[in-house]
Specification:
single chain; mainly alpha; two-stranded antiparallel ribbon; 71 residues
C-alpha cells in the first residue's frame, strides 16, 4: 500500500489549502480531497512534480510504501 502524506507536508510547511490551490491553479476542494486522502490518490506525474516544487519537498516526503500484511 502507498500511504499519502500531503496533509503532514503542508502542515510542516504551514501551507494552507487555499494557498496551495491558488499556486496549482485548481479549486480548493481538489486540494481538500488530496490532503485528506490516506492512501495515494490517482495523480499524474505533472501534479506530483508541481507539489514537490511548490512545497519544496522530495517525492518520498509525500509517499511511503507500507508492506501489506500477509494473512
Amino acid at each position: 500500500m502507498i500511504k499519502w502524506h500531503l496533509n503532514r507536508v503542508m502542515a510542516d510547511r504551514r501551507i494552507r489549502g487555499k494557498t496551495l490551490a491558488s499556486w496549482l491553479g485548481v479549486h480548493p476542494n481538489t486540494v481538500y480531497r488530496l490532503r485528506n486522502a490516506d492512501t495515494m490518490p490517482s495523480v499524474d506525474g505533472e501534479l506530483l512534480e508541481n507539489l514537490c516544487k511548490l512545497l519544496d519537498c522530495r517525492l518520498w516526503e509525500l509517499v511511503e510504501q507500507v508492506p501489506l500484511e500477509e494473512h
